[in-house]
Amino acid sequence: MNRADLSKQPEQVAAMFDQVSTHYDRTNAVLSVGNAALWRLQATRAVNPQAGERILDIAAGTGTSSVALTHTGAHVVAADFSAGMIKVGRERHAGNPLIEFVQADATALPFADNEFDAVTISFGLRNVVEPRKALAEFFRVTKPGGRVVICEFSTPPNPVIRGAYFAYLNQVMPRVVKLASSNAEAYDYLGESIAAWPTQPVLSGWLRDVGYESVAYKNLTLGIVALHRGVKAAPAAVPAD
């Protein structure tokens, strides 16, 4: 069995997700007590995909979030560092011409500047070894006037809720994982990475630092998850002579 640690070395993270790829979606549904689907629905609504748009879904895994983004006619590039996840996604969604699966590193995206109308990542930024470098890449490939949407586990602001949540991560989740996952050891990393992840205001600051404007976040499920948004400003219009 293989699991990553908080050094988040890319090879370890990729190998870990390769091993859990076949049962990843089922395990997430169990661990989130059904909330995973609701969180992804909120993220899709925030992206607001439109017909003809080109959208980059990073850390797309098996393409669960990507499928929802295609329902209005947008073309989605589903990118993930894990070859195993990409393989499962391609097999599951072979009949959907609006999804293109690409193996890619979030910190060195193989795409042109200003290529996408929207860039989104759900529950993946936390696994990147250099998240601020990844955000700079997101900004680079976002078109002027385009948007970024990040859905990520976060820190409940209420101390009582926060204490109960971390108790769940440390005590309850490991027992549930043993029943639901093909690699229970790998999910120990999940709780560790959530506990070490910065708060919502810090992530908002990172988005502003790389250049996004109109940055805001919305807490979901009492702040267990947060939905972050930003816009890449369009160039100023040049006055006519």
Automatic annotation (TrEMBL):
The lineage, from the top, is:
Bacteria, Bacillati, Actinomycetota, Actinomycetes, Micrococcales
* Chain residues that bind S-adenosyl-L-methionine: 62, 80, 105-106, 122
Looking up HAMAP family in the UniProt record yields: MenG_UbiE_methyltr (MF_01813)
Q: Kind of enzyme, top EC level?
A: transferase
The EC code for this enzyme is 2.1.1.163
Recorded source organism is: Cryobacterium zhongshanensis
Q: What is the protein name given in its UniProt record?
A: Demethylmenaquinone methyltransferase
Q: In which pathway does it act?
A: Quinol/quinone metabolism; menaquinone biosynthesis; menaquinol from 1,4-dihydroxy-2-naphthoate: step 2/2
Which keywords appear in this protein's UniProt record, sorted alphabetically?
A: Menaquinone biosynthesis, Methyltransferase, S-adenosyl-L-methionine, Transferase
Q: In the UniProt record, what gene is named as encoding this protein?
A: ubiE
